[in-house]
Design a protein that fits this description.
244 residues; alpha/beta; Rossmann fold; 2 domains; 6-stranded mixed beta sheet; 10 strands; globular; binds adenosine-5'-triphosphate
Length: 244
Amino acid sequence: MQDLLDVRNLTKRFGGLTAVNDLSFTLRQGEVAALLGPNGSGKTTALNMISGFQPASSGTVLLDGERLTGRPPHWISHAGVARTFQLVRVLSSLNVEENILAAVMFRKNPPAKETAQEEVQRLLEDVGLAGRSNENAASLTYIDQKRMELARALASKPKLLLLDEWLAGLNPSELSIGIGLISNLNEKGITILLVEHVMDAIRALCPRAVVMNAGRKIADGATAEVLRDPEVVRAYLGGAHAVA
Ligand SMILES: Nc1ncnc2c1ncn2[C@@H]1O[C@H](COP(=O)(O)OP(=O)(O)OP(=O)(O)O)[C@@H](O)[C@H]1O
């Protein structure tokens, strides 16, 4: 498998604070990896730079060899990177179908209306929302809002999906549904980077983990080994950050 994502020496400074400090890692096509670390270690800032929502202070991000750094979010989305946010973002005045249709039509080469509507139905099925087209987005339960957010991310046909604590706040049965959904997406060939604190989900989904602390990468490798690394245990697992 070739590298899909190549993050090189990525750095973000907010005034005197270096939130992400010389971060480098690569993701192979088809991989699912976790990006871990205590609160405030720079994970969301790293996702923001990869997806273009915040400019990097220095460093580069390449997707399939193409430079993403310096490009705006819509360009990066068109290049094949989709993301979800820590706080679910929905278009609350629209229904479920319209929310997803809007995302389909945001693509670089949007399909004709009929094809777009068929695609929406497929996306609804993929995330477990079949038959729910006409429901008001704002009245969906939390897990269903998450499903819809995922469908909106998938509408861009991403090569790389960045999930920022997408599983947070789910109860145990919802969590296993969520894990199943992510796993299905990966089986369809989507490469996934998961910022997550739910350790059961990380163990179930991610053969590989990258760990950050205070903006720096402190470990990168097979998840089981990384989670035994004394520095990771000291910085992350020993504290109250990770959720069993
Ligand atoms: N826009 C900003 N301006 C100033 N400082 C910021 C900004 N965004 C993030 N920070 C700081 O950068 C550091 C990294 O934050 P970030 O949100 O990336 O961490 P995180 O690892 O995602 O944390 P969490 O697990 O709590 O989401 C923190 O100290 C945070 O306060």
